Amino acid sequence: MNIPDSINVLLIGGGAREHALAMGLARSGRLGTLYATHMENPGIAKLAQGVDVPATGKELYRLVQFCDRKNIELVVIGPEDPLAEGWGDTLCKKADGSARLVFGPGAKGAQLEADKAYAKQMMRAASVPTAEGRVFDHFSHVEEYLKTRDEVYVIKATGLAKGKGVIVPTTNEEGIKAARDMMEKGAFGGAGKRILVEEKIAGTEVSVLALLDGHNILVLPPCQDHKRLGEGDTGPNTGGMGAFCPAQTIDDATMQQIESEVLVPIADVLRRDEIDFRGVLYAGIMLTPAGPKVLEFNVRFGDPECQPLITRLESDLIELLWATASGSLDEVEVKFSSQAAVCVVLASKGYPQAPESGAVITGVEEAQAIEGVTVFHAGTKLLDNGFLVTSGGRVLSVTGLGDTIEQARERAYQGVEKIHFEGMQVRTDIAHDAPVHS
Ligand code: AMP
Ligand code: GLY
User: Fold this and answer.
1) CB 3.0-4.6 Å disulfide test: which of 50, 100, 106, 181 passes with 39?
2) Which of 295, 296, 299, 305 to mutate to test the pocket of ligand 1 (most atoms within 8 A of CB)?
3) What residues have CB less than 8 Å from 119, skipping those under 6 apart?
């Protein structure tokens, strides 16, 4: 692979996922200077230099100019919004017309996540196993449809809704209400105007993330995510309250099945449609008695899945991202530690509906001092007086690395115990039912 010794990198995004990516980038022997758009994240601010232009879709040309000025050769886009807005399509061109590498698909590829109706269509075209679903544009049609059904259906906003646009009701009356909230009351803005009504399926969930470089697929170790707010997977869906890696509920044969029945066919359909996808393809999978089925696609690292993945990564992250963005994944090998990682998310009071901000956070350094514990920042802010306060829904990701899932979990929760802020929400059962490996 043709890769420079020293590479200036721009990292876009300001959550715990991006803090983890910043840590991985900062560890790379190939890093020149790391620039970041979200210096208000105190974790990222410690590792990167800021961008002195606005990082907005409206004035993206200024970010392009910044990249040119700072000789940035690799742009890493963390979150779904800029991907869906096509930042990758713009940032991949230098002012002189030559190419700059971008890790993350362009707007067309990002539709796999940003438009669940499109994703369903792609899955059908590729014969990918998934829950049956129908798309609706009118609430009255949904109501009519659900009233005649005995089995309960899942209601999904087709657009981007920060992981909260999926309602898994217990009755169809509840489903009808959710559909009304989305389609008529604008619960998720434009994202919920069109909805997907999907067959409810059951089973263990796994997140299978793969790197795609336009030709090759490199499957990463499986993770498991805890999307519900409450203990025992109860309460509303969130962006994710915790994750662990590897997810041992899934065996090698099933991973291979997912690769051949899901990832390869989707990569083929993308190529057929001339969509040059270079980044992460994340398949949210349910392991049903009838085999693995896709619940959703994301086009980026999962948050919080990225935190345990990066914690376990032993390969050079820049080399890996460079290989993905340059179409050379066949020339690299990726190595993960044999250890396990567990990430526990600490969320603000009111999350996910109406998170409160401004609570003083203590104990992060004490947590960080524990062997095997890394604390990633998300919704935190460092005030001029030195106080760290909450500033968003998901506040911190406390990640433990250990020889077994049990040890990793113990370490993560030892870290959690050190940290306090008013109204802190934390699940105590992250990775709890993960089989213990020896
Ligand atoms: P998604 O954002 O599509 O992955 O959905 C969020 C969560 O809702 C998933 O992790 C599942 O727990 C649940 N879910 C989504 N689709 C279905 C389905 N068809 N049947 C049952 N549960 C689902
Ligand atoms: N953890 C789920 C997601 O990133 O969408």
Assistant:
1) 50
2) 295
3) 111, 112, 113, 296, 297
Q: β-strand 166-167 against 217-219: which pairing, if any?
A: unpaired
Cα 303 to ligand 2 centroid, rounded to whole Å: 5
Over residues 173-218, the pLDDT tens digits come to: 999 999 999 999 999 999 999 999 999 999 999 999 999 999 999 9
Domain 132-199: CATH architecture, name and number where available: 2-Layer Sandwich (3.30)
Cis peptide before 308 (omega within 30 of 0): no
Q: By alpha-carbon position, which residue is closest to atom 3 of ligand 2? A: 302
**Ligand index nearest the alpha carbon of residue 224:** 2
Could you tell me which CATH class the domain 8-105 is placed in?
A: alpha beta
How do the domains of the chain map onto residue ranges?
8-105, 132-199
Question: In the numeric block, which tokens belong to residue 378?
Answer: 């998300």
Give per-residue pLDDT as tens, 92-135: 999 888 999 999 999 999 999 999 999 999 999 999 999 999 99
What pTM was computed for the model? 0.96
Q: Is the CB of 154 under 6 A from ligand 1?
A: yes
